[in-house]
Write a structure and sequence with these properties.
This protein is α+β, with helices and mostly antiparallel strands and 426 residues long. The protein has ten helices and 19 strands. The strands form two sheets. Strands 1, 2, 3, 4, 5, 6, 7, 8, 9 and 10 form a ten-stranded antiparallel sheet that branches. A hairpin with a 2-residue loop joins strand 9 and strand 10. The two termini are 37 Å apart.
Length: 426
């Protein structure tokens, strides 16, 4: 649910393509520009790297998380270039004018102007914390024995933590969105879980974030055939590990997107003391997917007269769908029963510009399904997207261009709700 990419520049490969050229060409280096596709603006980076009289040509599409897409040279001189990206049926032809590559990007019969300047855009992430930190961290591992998975993560102790003190801090387990993610839930050079963990530590709250199975330093566990139920066992093992330390007052979950879905799976089983659901789905998967697809097409300037039912039917007929067991499970999964069985306190939040988990539909469903409790909180944030960034349209192609990793208001509200919950339970 977290990773939705457009077809343009989509395919990735590790294949290296080298072309023999004059090694003194003035075009060597990296070039970048904005490709306008309807209402969407995508950054494209062209790399021309020399080695042993050859030049490696490749493309990046940072807005889609795509890097090192191999390109083959049709022509390359001191002032002109023509490259072909065979795997996506695209070409770029340009001429050097006033220090810029002025050309045309073509794909699938469509042509788009693309002007590129020398250099790579600077990525600014001002919220990313830098050491030294005013708190301690600990590298840990825990095991999901049933799935033969060993999960590696970072346990962050709150600022001023004293293990001999009578008062114990509460702790949150971070659970990532869909796709294999590292412990920081890193996407488009953003590290949202690292930012949240740092903020919580400064507010007296401990946390554990871990690499998804078979990702980063985590090993084992089937990924190809795994569904959210399998990933929920990894999270359950994390909760059990934290409880075994006997160092915390409460042990709960902060889950983003699919991580929120997993949180409610475990909430129904009474395995977590509380839940912070960051855009966790509250409706059936096929309904969510259909509305998501239509919303993204609408905002992208693509005409669509498909109903939700027609959209889902089209998805199910896609040959790729038959190979993707996680997606098959997700479309059929209805979270209503598990949300209804969740008795622990819940803070459910969404941005009203979220195009992946539609806020108005989602929060309404969760609020109606959850058992009534004065400790529950539901909040919709104006102008925030699926990553809880301030945005313009909410389209996923904006994520990488936004410097903000997560809204300060969201960080403050999470910490405040957690600390109030810990205080009221004493």
């Amino acid at each position: 649910m977290r990773k939705i990419f457009f077809t343009l520049l989509l395919t990735l490969s590790t294949t290296t393509v080298w072309t023999q050229v004059n090694p003194t060409t003035a075009l060597l280096g990296s070039w970048s520009g904005k490709l306008k596709v309807g209402t969407i603006s995508l950054t494209v980076v062209l790399h021309l790297e020399q080695a042993d009289g050859y030049v490696k040509a490749s493309l990046d599409s940072p807005n889609q998380g795509a890097k090192d897409i191999p390109a083959n040279k049709e022509y390359l001189s001191d002032d002109s270039i023509a490259v072909k990206v065979e795997m996506i049926g695209a070409t770029y032809r340009a001429k050097l004018k006033d220090g810029k590559l002025d050309g045309i990007f073509s794909q699938s019969g469509m042509k788009f102007p693309l002007v590129m300047t020398k250099g790579v855009p600077e990525v600014k992430r001002p919220q990313e914390p830098k050491p030294p930190f005013p708190y301690e961290t600990e590298e840990v591992t825990f095991k999901n024995e049933k799935d033969s998975a060993t999960l590696a993560g970072t346990l962050t102790w709150p600022m001023g933590y004293d293990k001999n003190a009578k008062k114990k801090p509460m702790v949150v387990l971070f659970v990532t969105g869909s796709g294999q993610e590292n412990r920081d839930e890193e996407i488009f050079y953003h590290k949202p879980f690292l930012v949240i963990a740092d903020y919580l530590a400064r507010q007296g709250i401990a946390s554990l974030r871990y690499d998804d199975r078979a990702t980063g330093k985590s090993t084992g566990g089937d990924v190809k055939n795994a569904t959210s139920e399998d990933f929920a066992r990894d999270a359950a093992a994390g909760l059990e590990f934290l409880r075994s330390k006997k160092a915390f007052s409460k042990v709960g979950i902060i889950g983003h997107s699919e991580g929120g879905l997993i949180a409610f799976l475990l909430g129904a089983l009474k395995k977590t003391d509380f839940i912070v659901s960051l855009a966790g789905p509250g409706v059936k998967g096929d309904t969510l997917s259909a509305i998501q697809s239509n919303r993204i097409m609408e905002l992208s300037g693509i005409d669509s007269t498909l109903t939700a039912k027609m959209t889902v039917k089209k998805i199910r007929q896609d040959p790729q769908f038959q190979k993707f067991r996680w997606y098959q499970w997700f479309l059929d999964y209805d979270p209503s029963d598990n949300i209804g069985k969740t008795r622990c306190p819940v803070f459910a939040l969404n941005g009203d510009h979220d195009t992946q988990v539609i806020s108005s539909q989602n929060l309404t469903a969760i609020k109606q399904l959850l058992p009534k409790s004065k400790k529950n909180l539901f909040k919709e944030y104006s102008g925030l997207n699926h990553l809880f960034q301030h945005c313009t349209t909410g389209l996923p192609t904006e994520y990488g261009d936004i410097e903000e990793t997560i809204s300060e208001e969201v960080l403050k509200d999470i910490a405040q709700w957690l600390n109030q919950l810990n205080k009221s339970s004493k």
